[in-house]
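Open question from group meeting: does this chain pack into something compact, or does most of it stay loose? Before anyone orders reagents, we agreed to write out a predicted structure and look at it together. Recording both the input and the output here so the notebook holds the full record.
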Amino acid sequence: MSEVIIETRDLSKQFVRDEFTVNALVGVSLEIHKGEFVTLMGPSGSGKSTLLHLIAAMDRPSDGQIRVLGHDLRELSEKEISHWRNEHVGFIFQQFNLIPVLTALENVELPLKLTNLKKPERLEHATTALKLVGLGDRLSHFPRQLSGGQEQRVAIARAIVTDPALILADEPTGNLDAASAQEVLTVLSRLNKEYGKTIVMVTHDPHAARFATKVHHLEKGELVAEGMQPA
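Structure tokens returned:
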């Protein structure tokens, strides 16, 4: 069995809204191994996006343990978390979050500005990432000149341009038509199978889940079942 790169033990997250406490996650324990393509499924409010955000260290747990890529996330400072995330994690949002006044190439280059790479090297890496997602002919296009599926593929290129060990995707096909969703899922599957990227994807779409190697189901903040996908 490959190494465990995400491990949670009795992980819980509570939010206080007005005078009420909302249990977003309750005692979640799971392991995700290197090279897996895992989906987190469940209805709205089941805690799947909360769990993804905890894995990305975009939020802090209320209780329990969480280790990702060998780091205990509860022990890292905000500065350490920011550096860790920039170096090791690529995040794909449902909203593409592209900057309208930048070209596809410039959008993908952005994360590399936090590195020590010179501009020619940054542009070379960004070009390679866009070619990998099938957009080598759209380098100079602005977001408004792209379809929704192409915009999301630019967002994927931006997420992978730093060569992260872990790719996290929150409903990446939620705003796409069926054909565009298929393109995005095919790219993610290729990143997993051909490049060995570990992917954790939140989705409510059973069709999207079929691209994964393992499925975890959440209900009311609890992990209720998991199942292997057919090869």
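Observations to bring back to the group:
The domain at 4-228 is CATH 3.40.50.300 (Rossmann fold).
The chain has one domain: 4-228.
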